[in-house]
Amino acid sequence: MKFTRLSLYSILIVIIIMGSGILAACGDEEPTDKQAQETAEQKDGDKKDQEGKEQDQDLAVTVTDHMDREIEFESHPETVVSLMPNLTETLFALDMSDQILGITDFCNYPQEVEDKTRVGDAFDLNVEKIVSLEPDLVVMGGGEMMGEINDKLDEMGIKTLVFDPQDLDEVEEMFLTLGEVFDREEAAENLHEEFKQEREQLQSEVSDIDETQSAVVLLEPESLYTVGEDVFLSEVIELTGVENIASDISGYDEISQEVLLDQDPDVIITTYHDIEELKAMGALSELTAVKEGRVYQGHDDKLSRPGPRVIDGAREVFEEIY
To answer: Which residues, by range, are in coiled-coil regions (predicted)?
Structure first.
C-alpha cells in the first residue's frame, strides 16, 4: 500500500514537471498575428525612411557658377527671379513661365514677359522688391554692379546663381546647368541640341563661302563704337561669315574715321545706324559699303545676348550679306 501511494506521488510530480516544461515551451512559440504585424510595420517604416534619405540625396544638386562658387541645392528650386534678359529668355525656353516671379525692365522677350513683375533694370535694381517676392533662387549676370547686388541678396539670405557666358560653348553649358538646377534636364538637352545643330549648320555654310567679305560692326548711334576680339560678340560676328576689320582691337572700343576709311570694309553691320545716318557722318559717306547700300541692320538683342536666339541673329545677318 505504501508502495502504491509513493508511486502515485511520483507520477504526480512527473506530471507537474512535464506541465511546467510544456508551458515554458509555449512561451517560445511564434509571435501572435498582432506582434507580427507590428514588426512588419516597423521594418516597412525603417525601409521608407532609408528610401527617403536616398531620394533626398538623389535630388541634391551641386553646380559651379561663373564666380567659381560651388552652389548646393538640397532640392530643385520652385521659383526664380531673373536679372538678365538672356537668362529670362532661357528660362522661358525651358518652359518655366509659371516659376518666374520677377524680371528686369530690359527683359522684353518672349511676349509672356509682359505679365511678369519688374524689379528694375541692371543699373537700378530694387533689392527689397526682389526679396519681397521670396524666390527660391535669383539668377543673374556677372560684372561689378551685379556683384554688389549679389552681396546684398546674400546678406538677406537669398540664394543666387551667376552666369556670365563669354563664348558660345559657355552658352550651351548655361542651358544644361539651368536644366539640372531646375529639374528641366530633358528640355535643356533639347534646347542644347537644337542650338548646337543650328550653330554647326551655319558654320558649315560659312565655310563654303568662296570670297569672304570684310566688315565693321557699329554698335551705337552717333559714334563709331565697334567690337574687336576676345568678347562674346566677336565670335557671333564670325558666324555671319565676315572678316572683322577691327580684329586688332581688344574688346569694345571706338574706331576712328581715318582707320575706317583706310580699311574701307565691303559691308557694315550695325545695330542702330541706317544708311542715311552714316551718310550724315561726314567722310563716312565715301565708304564703299555706304555708296553701294551694303549696310545691314542686325537685331541687337539677338546678336548681343548670350542666349537661345543668338544663332538666329547671326544667320539673319549672314543671309543678308550672302
So the answer is: 185-212
